[in-house]
Amino acid sequence: MRLHTHLAETVDEQEQCLAEFGTTPAGYAQELGWLGTDVWFAHAVHLSDEAIGRVAATGTGAAHCPSSNARLGAGVCRTPELLEAGVPVGLGDGPASSELSGLADEMRQAVLMARSRSGPRALTARRALHMATLGGARCLGRSAELGSLESGKLADVALWRVDGFGYDAIEDPVVALVFGPQPPLEHLMVGGAAVVERGELRTVSAESAAAAGRRAHRRILDREQNR
Q1: Which of 50, 54, 161, 203 is the most buried (most CB within 10 A)?
Q2: CA-CA distance, 112 to 62, in Å (whole number)?
Q3: Where are the domains of the chain?
């Protein structure tokens, strides 16, 4: 079992934490024992050099959520500094704060945001791919099972097509995946079982999944209105 929460996402959080506890979010997490190899934080946008050092020294992970941070105007995560310090950094996002949260899109957003803040060499396409795969597996404590194609690991495999129109002029397939338009998902396996084939979901119908999503959304709205 691992520990997870959001941390240092907004300036408001930083200010409130200083006012109530006299320390930063990272400092407060350390006081509570919430730093360690079994912990990973979402966002981690507003971290000082000292806080990055604390997170790195304890092996704490971070889930970089570039689309959410941009969507909410929360700031730009210091991803290059986190990686340089040795922090396990993965990519994450969700529909609660980002209407579009495909993994390929998050890789692109991560590179663009890092470069907009720190210059053209701040983050490479391959480093973004590493965050999306092995970086995320490290955050979850599952790098021995997931994150790379190796004998003995689980057959969780995504195959994107980067050989069609719009990609054919990009020589490097990793650059095509990260910087090009979102590629079509040719095949997705989870534990060796096919979940998506030629872009079509095989385990459940798209219509039933959409209907279930609408029902869940309606229940949340009704609950909030009845409070």
Answers
A1: 54
A2: 18
A3: 1-144, 155-227
Instruction: Give me the CATH topology for the region 155-227.
Output: Urease, subunit C; domain 1 (2.30.40)
Pick among 3.10.560.10, 3.90.1010.10, 3.20.20.140, 3.40.50.2000: CATH of 1-144: 3.20.20.140
CA-CA distances (angstroms) from residue 201 to 72, 98, 194, 208, 209? 30, 22, 9, 11, 10
Q: How far, in Å, CA of 2 to CA of 95, rounded?
A: 22
Per-residue pLDDT of the chain (227 residues; tens, 9 = 90+): 899 999 999 999 999 999 999 999 999 999 999 999 999 999 999 999 999 999 999 999 999 999 999 999 999 999 999 999 999 999 987 777 777 668 888 999 999 999 999 999 999 999 999 999 999 999 999 999 999 999 999 999 999 999 888 888 899 999 999 998 888 899 999 999 999 999 899 999 989 988 998 999 899 889 888 87
Contacts 24+ apart (CB under 8 A), 220-225: none
DSSP 200-212: EE-SS-HHHHHHH
pTM over 0.85: yes
Residue (of 109, 57, 39) closest to 79 by Cα position: 109
User: In angstroms, rounded to a whole number, what is the distance separating the alpha carbons of residues 145 and 16?
Assistant: 39
Q: What are φ and ψ of residue 50, in 5° steps?
A: -65, -45
